[in-house]
Amino acid sequence: MITVRVPAKVNVQLGVGGLRADGFHDLANVFFAVALADEVTATPGEGVTLSCTGPDAASVPLDATNLAARAARLLAAHHGLADPGVHLHIAKAIPVAGGMAGGSADGAAALVACDALWGLDTPLETLLELAAELGSDVPFALLGGVALGRGRGEILEPLPVAGPFHWVFAVADGGLSTPAVFRECDRLREEAGTGSSDREVPTPDADPALLAALADGDPVALAAALANDLQAAALSLRPALADTLRAGTGAGALAALVSGSGPTCAFLTKDAESAAAVAEALIASGTCRTAHATHGPVPGAAVLAG
Ligand SMILES: C[C@](O)(CO)[C@H](O)COP(=O)(O)OP(=O)(O)OC[C@H]1O[C@@H](n2ccc(N)nc2=O)[C@H](O)[C@@H]1O
Ligand SMILES: Nc1ncnc2c1ncn2[C@@H]1O[C@H](COP(=O)(O)OP(=O)(O)OP(=O)(O)O)[C@@H](O)[C@H]1O
């Protein structure tokens, strides 16, 4: 039996370029791994089967579309295993369709867990390539820490970071579809007259002030540099998120932003004590389903000892 812990992410900078011919957008995507984590346990089985527990378990598909099942099959096919056998149990803490890459995290965890269970010893470089086939956010879940993602987010460069930073995540009722949020971003750009294609929108780059704040471990400077080009689109589709963001800053967070494609909202705080107070205030505000205080950066998908 192999158990892998895998972190959620928040995008501390999400610069979104124009729509490419292949349907993706070029990004300057600064990923940050946080301690809110799923655990995926692989045990020997027949075929690829799944189970899931946790508050959002009812929203997790247990068929072949689940990213953990797709990852297991992809790894088996890569090694020419005709008859892969594994049962994957997902202990789910990461909000589903929340903009924290929960499905992607489970995909990455399943790659690592099956690799260990089946004794394959696949090089990290190959796991990263398989991860990119599964989705744009999956390679980062293997690496963890803090990294700049270029291309559609899959071309990763680890970044220097001094931590920890303290965060609160406010979980919304219901999810948002990632493709729908990118489409809304394009629609808002068209409406504003700037155009939305990759010929019209400049390719984004990482903000030097943000990179310096991460390297210095300076939460006040990081708060000033947080930026998400998908935030306007998420707020357009879910206007009530503005109340959640206000509730967190009103309770003393240094800054608030939508996490990735949303609807989870992220709050950076000055220390762990402040994070606990902001989480409590958010729950009391009634503007979210629940809120979690956590920290980061933390490592990527890794086998738990024992
Ligand atoms: C919003 C983020 O979570 C930020 O990290 C990611 O960009 C989304 O990554 P993901 O969920 O792994 O997305 P994928 O499964 O690769 O793609 C789902 C859909 O999102 C849109 N998509 C995704 C990534 C990207 N760079 N441009 C896009 O336009 C496309 O419509 C794509 O068909
Ligand atoms: N292991 C999984 N866990 C959760 N959802 C999954 C999983 N596998 C597939 N899905 C499907 O993917 C959809 C998006 O879920 P996910 O939790 O990955 O969204 P997300 O966190 O917003 O993604 P991202 O931040 O990468 O854009 C779900 O609604 C579900 O149908």
Q: Topology of this structure?
A:
Elements: E1 2-19, E2 25-43, E3 48-53, H1 67-78, E4 86-91, H2 102-117, H3 124-134, H4 138-143, E5 146-150, E6 155-158, E7 165-171, H5 178-192, H6 208-216, H7 219-225, E8 227-228, H8 231-237, H9 241-250, E9 255-258, E10 265-269, H10 272-285, E11 290-296, E12 302-303
Parallel strand pairs: 1-8, 3-4
Antiparallel strand pairs: 1-2, 1-12, 2-4, 2-5, 5-6, 7-10, 7-11, 9-10
Helix pairs in contact: 1-2, 1-3, 5-8, 6-7, 9-10
The structure holds 4-diphosphocytidyl-2-C-methyl-D-erythritol and adenosine-5'-triphosphate.
The site of adenosine-5'-triphosphate has 22 residues, from helix 1 and helix 2.
